[in-house]
Amino acid sequence: MKICYYPGCTLKTKARNLETAGIEAMRALDVEMEELERWNCCGVVFSLADDDLLHLLAPIRDLIRVKDAGHDKVLTLCSMCYNTLARSNLVMRDNEEKRDTINTFMEEETDYFGDVKVLHLLNFLRDEIGWDKVKAQVKVPLKGLKVATNYGCTLTRPDEVGIDSAENPTVFEDFLRALGAEPIHFPGGTDCCGTYQVMDNPEAADDAVARIITSATDYGAEAIVSSCPLCEYNVGKRQAALLEKKDDLKELPSFYLTQLLAVAFGADPESLGFELNHAGSLPLLKEKVLK
Amino acid sequence: MSEAATDMQAKLIPIFIMGKKYEVPDSLTIMKAMEYAGYQFIRGCGCRGGVCGACGTVYRKPGDYHIRVGLACQTVVEADMYLTQIPFYPANRSAFEFEKTTGEPEDVFKAYPELFRCVACNACTKVCPMDVPVMDYISAIKRGDLKKATELSFDCIQCGLCATRCMAEMAQYHIAQMVRRIHGSKGTPNADHADTMVADIKAGKFNDELADLKTKSKDELKEIYTSRPMEPAMADEFWKPDHE
Amino acid sequence: MTLKITDVSHDEEFMRKLQEISGEDVSKCMQCGTCTGGCPMTDKMDGTPRQIMLLSHYGMKDKISADNTVWLCATCNTCYARCPRGIEIPKVMEAIRQLKLRENINKVEPNQIPPEILEDAPQIAIVSCLRKNTS
């Protein structure tokens, strides 16, 4: 099957490992991810000011492109993009006044009514593929690799777009189990990594990340998996610098969910962009899973 | 007046230059109409051929809220147009060090971080007199696709109208120019035949020919020039001049 | 903290604009403190989310402006997910930020971000930082 794919800016550069692994893994499930031909940055955060319509234009424009391309569903790999697209979509579906104003303003675009279904890889796999089918494609089971599930903020909150319960989600754990890994459900699983505070208030972000890593390792995790490029940046890429500052933290190799999926489906790990991950990630896989 | 003369007399239409009404012939371009009305251009006028970007003009028609644009040298006047020119609009230009660039998108991110304020409002695209997809090329730059941004921004004539409308307060055309420069220089492969040619010249391959030409008279040079081998209009890519 | 309430301590214009921009009724807040309990950024905040809700309720614009609280908010929505009164607290935070930003005072200027960070950070970090801190 073909599905319309919205990458998001980061997945073409800093997070291209998330994309490469995703496209490869989906092929094994007979899903061809067809990238939207003409797309713009979704704006990353959903506009929270009630009188602000300007910042809704970017994500809604992308949803219009999805419809213009003849699709009624769009798949994202980046959870922040998922959240922004999904929340903006609801405004167009439910708020008649805002919908009319935005449609009138974007006179150069087709009118849109919030009827595209926005999907993240996790709920796509759970709801449209099914864990049984995922399990059936596993050629290299992740042999009980203890992986902490880092949901982050944007997959489960707020309720109106959450793909699972905000307090006790299970979708990421089900995902890992289907791949043969041992999911580590830990209290910090839905904690915030600090997101954009890393730019302006890095110490605050560091504290948030330290809490996540401590909680995960306390519960026995040997690795952590994320679905968002910003989580991966804060928890994975910046980890080495953080460990220098807080030497009581244990090292925790980090993965993107698509990388684990692709490895489990038998893809060549060297082609999955691990050079962009935490330095210990590929060696851990080689040691525990790939031998 | 004879019939022929009245037939040839152009119809006069009203246009409003910075709010003041003038009657001008309806076949003139905005630029010629402004000169007809007595304005003398010392700014906001350049090639008069639609490629230099000096004469960006913004106009409106009564009863219509839309903002319309055009190049004064290319756009024919319309009755009741209310126009002004934007010969200059302040735009931030980063003093980046070309030698230090690598051709990677991060060069542009560091030189113009304001580009991340883009909200995809499309006001820039709508105001471009050359139909350049400005929002799309900024989008391409944001995701690191310098090649696409180079292709999309190619027709830009640096008129600056996009910058006047940008809500993020960036100067799109300066950013695109940086992209084209670094992508062309460091992102695309070098033309090998250019290097070969330069080496040939330095090795003196053309010295004899040049020395010979210097001895010719003006008429002889004209003759050589007009009878030189020229690529036929329908030649294929394998065509070469006879004497190689 | 003790708040001195007088006949002039509340800024009515601020309260009205806060309601308009956020769309939330801050008087619903019962000061239970659950928001503060789940907030990942309280360590570095001057005032906690609960305190900001209280100050908003009393229209104490100056006290709110003096705090770094709203600028440390990471919009993680944990408070919203847990608030027993269903108040979308992130919207209140955004409204307070907007009231400052719309005076044309940016909290972060793009050219103040160190080049190493612009080189290293993923685009989503830069875009969202500028969305929250500039107008």
Can you walk through the features of this model?
The complex is a heterotrimer of chains A (291), B (244) and C (135). Helix content of chain A is 45%, strand content 11%. Chain A has 13 helices and eight strands. In chain A, the strands form two sheets. In chain A, strands 2-1-3-4 form a four-stranded parallel beta sheet, sandwiched between helices. Chain A has a four-stranded parallel beta sheet with strand order 6-5-7-8, sandwiched between helices. Chain B is of the alpha+beta class. Among the domains of chain B are: 10-85, Beta-grasp domain (Ubiquitin-like (UB roll), Roll), CATH 3.10.20; 98-187, Orthogonal Bundle (Fumarate Reductase Iron-sulfur Protein, Chain B, domain 2). Chain B has a five-stranded mixed beta sheet with strand order 2-1-5-3-4, with helices on one face. Chain C has two domains: 12-103, Fumarate Reductase Iron-sulfur Protein, Chain B, domain 2, CATH 1.10.1060.10; 107-135, no CATH class. Classes of the chains: A alpha/beta (291), B alpha+beta (244), C mainly alpha (135).
Fill in the keyword field for this structure.
heterotrimer, B: 244 residues, alpha+beta, Ubiquitin-like (UB roll), Fumarate Reductase Iron-sulfur Protein, Chain B, domain 2, five-stranded mixed sheet, 11 helices, 36% helix, flat, C: 135 residues, mainly alpha, 9 helices, 0% strand
Q: Using DSSP, what is the number of strands of chain B?
A: 5
Average pLDDT of chain B: 92
Helix content of chain B: 25-40%
The low-pLDDT segments of chain A are none
Percent helix range of chain A: 40-55%
Radius of gyration of chain B: 25 Å
Which CATH architecture of the domain at 98-187 in chain B?
Orthogonal Bundle
H/E order of the elements of chain B?
A: HEEHEEEHHHHHHHHH
Question: What's the story with the biggest beta sheet of chain A?
Answer: 4 strands, parallel
Biggest β-sheet: strands ordered side by side in the sheet of chain B:
2-1-5-3-4
